[in-house]
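Table 4 source record.
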Amino acid sequence: MIETLEEYALIAEIISAIAIIISLVFVGVQIKANTKATQASSFHEIAALDINILLNFSSSQELARLITVFRDNPDSLSEEEKMHGFYLFGAEVRHVENLFLQNENKMLSAKNWKSRKALVDGVVLSAGFGALLKHPFRKFFDGSFIDYGIDQRKKSGLTD
């Protein structure tokens, strides 16, 4: 039987410690669930952007041609075509930059990043990305993404 105030205090401390442990476990479970929900939302947004970009680029033969030629061989375009192609390609680069940054910030699961990394690397290894690296607009892209692109290009033997 509990006889002193100290014993009541000790029992209260034990109950308090157990309650804190239970609440921390609950918070951990909630954080894990929230992380999965955030990753699912990010993946959904990325898929919607993928679809939107693909639909826009395929909306006309000329747009599809410009983006393809700019990506593969920008120097083969006239100055006017190069300007239009650069803006189209810039939209694609912005999209893959977003994918890269989502991954860097742990907003994509490893599985989702694996399925998107080939797209990111395909863009940064293209001749169009090499042209972007020489353009003043390069400064409008995230530095860590640009550094990633430069590193990937060096690993692949591309020199700019």
